[in-house]
Structures are given as structure tokens and as C-alpha cells.
């Protein structure tokens, strides 16, 4: 579901530059018009009248949601279009917005990319539709991720509270205790690789999303945004915790030099040479489909902590559904968006393997009590739900995070293949991101 989340392409970065420049122009010229309030009666009237809407999304369970929505509202036709995954769709959406035609009524936008489109004045502030009344519907991490600049620019569709997935068979074989802290995790990495030089605690070749998630969990707040004023501090306390700890794994060559989602990665997860993943709660379906031979070998545990006894978590992945301003039918679009994220569509998506962003589902006895045969019958949702509740508050993404992530491996990535340290890599990433922001007209401090 999120396999291309971090596959950032240089061409997309260039497209991002153009859109970000346009975004600043809109901000500074006051080109944004407020949206008139849309009442529940108006939305219901639109459903009864009927019509057609186009939804751009790659999330697979929306197919079943569309079928159910059309059955409930037979006068409405939903055209579900996969315009590409992640950045491929964002480029298409940016191009459609710039051209002024072909813009969908609803678009799937990941949390890290949402601020860029909101700043670009290309999304409708859902406050006009009463979206703020749904705040208590969603878990804290996703809820805060759809809010920026005083508005609500999407509704959370799913979430990625993180957990530790580990190969119990490998841990038992080498008598390794499940780590509860990151120091214990490093110790486990050393013990495992010493016992079997072909085995690694995990893989990592440099990943922006993973890095920022661990900084987030460590309490870091490297990005702060106030309109067009941006602060970038990739040397804050949380960033320093991540860099000093993870450097031990990088410098000690204790990480499998295998890219995630590659054939080698799936092979390693299957044969035990990659023993853990610290990743979002959406991962079970990927393990079940991509590594079926390892069924029964894997288990789930809470994320290792930076401080013993703590219970901090972070998000990794997750998407919203948003209304592009240039869409032809915002009332019907919002009706579908609300149905899919806060209505009957939520259970439909959960039943088909999605991980929800809604508190009701995460508290449901049926959801919490679900047993996962892949994890030896473990009730893994109990761990995921607690992680969702423990996400550290206050995290922000840059308004040009898509571009910043696209240059991650040009900077931090060097630490994985040269003598550059992660600390120096983060510093270089900060400087390059700040330069880009300034070039686009942001005030960066």
C-alpha cells in the first residue's frame, strides 16, 4: 500500500519546485478565497439530486467503498481512477491544477505531502463543511496531520502507528530478548550478527520517512511552519538521539544493505536474514502477501523506546482524502470523503485489510480481539492501537517535504556508503532544504 512512499524521483522534485513557487505567489497576493459554509442539508440535497464525481486514489480498499457508496446513493456515479502511486499522482495533480482542467473531485494525499498542496491554495478548507466537528473521530497523529495554517485540508483515511515486527524463530534460535529500548536493539543487532554474519537486525540504505519517524518518536521537532516562515533544525535533541544511536548500526555494518520493497528485501524477511522491521501498522498485509512462507514465524511488539519505561510512538505512512478546489462538485466530493473516512466506509476498509485512523474502530473489541494467524494467533491490533494512542504530539512536516525527501539520499544517504556520519548528513540535509526553501521565497530560520 505504501510501497512507493519513499520512491522520490528527481522529476517530481522539479515539478514540486514549480508548484511551491506558485504556492508562495498565492500566499503573498492573497489569491485564496474562503469557501462559503456548506450545510449538511446541502450535502444531502446533492446526494439526492445525484451526479458524477472523480476520485484519484491508489488505496485498494476504496474499490469496495465505491461499490457500497453507489449502492446507498444510486444517483451518484463515482469514477475511481488510479492516477499513479504517491508522487506519480502528485505530479499529475500538480499538472492538472496548473492547466486548470482535469482536476479530480477527491484526491488521496499522504500526510507528509498535504501541507504542500494546502499552501499552494489548491485544496478546499474542509472547515466550511463542518469537518472540525469530526476531530474526536480520529486518532491524534492523523488528526493533527491534516491541519495546517489554521485550516483542515483533508480527512484521515488511514494511519501508520509504528511497532516492532520481529522474527521469533530467529530470536529464539539465538536466544535474543525482544528489545524494549533502542540501546537493547543495538545490543541485539550486535549479538545476532556475531552469531550469524549473514543475519542482520534490519535493513536500511537510507530512508527519509523512517528517519523522520524515529526523530519524531524521540521527541524531535525539526520542522516548524508558520505561513511562509519555516524553521529547520535537524540538530535538535530528537535528531541527535537518532543520529548517535543509529550511527552505531551504520558504522558497525549491522544493517542489511538491501533496499526496502526489493526482491532481496522480501527474500531476507522470508529466510530470517532480516530479523526485524520497525514500521507502520499497515505492514501485516504486506507480510502476508509478500512473505507467505514465513507465516507463524513473525510477531509484533511495541516500538523500542529512547527512554526505558516510556511509551512514545510515531507514525510512518498514512493518507488523507482531500477536495481539490478546482473539482467540479465539492458537495458530492465531501459526501464521499466523509463516508469513506468517518462513515460506513471505515468498516468496509478495515474488513478488507486497511488500518483505520478512527478511535471507534481502534477501541472496538472485535478489532482489538482479532487474531492474526500470520503472527501465530497474536492479537496484534492491541499493540497497534496503543501505539496510535501514544504518538508524540506536535509533529510538523515542511511545506515542501516532497522535495526535501527527494534529496535525502544526496545528503543523509551518504552516511550509508561513505565515512560521512549521520550527524553530518542531517546537517547537510538541513542546509540543502533551507536553501531550497529560501530559493522558493520562504523565510527560513
Brief summary of the model shown:
The chain has 445 residues and is of the alpha/beta class.
Could you please describe the fold and organization of this structure?
- The protein is of the alpha/beta class and 445 residues long.
- It folds into 2 domains: 10-159 and 317-363, 3-Layer(aba) Sandwich (D-Maltodextrin-Binding Protein, domain 2); 162-314 and 395-444, Periplasmic binding protein-like II (D-Maltodextrin-Binding Protein, domain 2), CATH 3.40.190.
- The chain is 44% helix and 13% strand.
- It has 20 helices and 15 strands.
- The chain has helices spanning 10-29, 40-49, 62-72, 87-99, 114-119, 140-145, 168-173, 182-195, 208-217, 237-251, 263-271, 283-290, 330-342, 344-351, 359-363, 365-368, 380-389, 401-406, 408-411, 422-439; strands spanning 51-56, 76-81, 106-110, 147-148, 151-152, 155-156, 162-167, 202-203, 223-226, 229-232, 255-256, 276-280, 298-301, 319-322, 443-444.
- Strand 9 and strand 10 form a beta hairpin.
- Helix 2 (40-49) crosses helix 13 and helix 3 (62-72) runs antiparallel to helix 14.
Report the CATH superfamily of the largest domain.
Periplasmic binding protein-like II
- Distance from N terminus to C terminus (CA atoms, Å) equals 36 Å
Instruction: Just name the CATH architecture of the largest domain.
Output: 3-Layer(aba) Sandwich
Residues in helices, as a percent range: 40-55%
Largest sheet: 5 strands, mixed
Overall CATH class of the largest domain: Alpha Beta
Low-confidence stretches: 1-18, 25-32
Number of helices: 20
Give Rg in angstroms: 22 Å
What is the mean pLDDT? 91
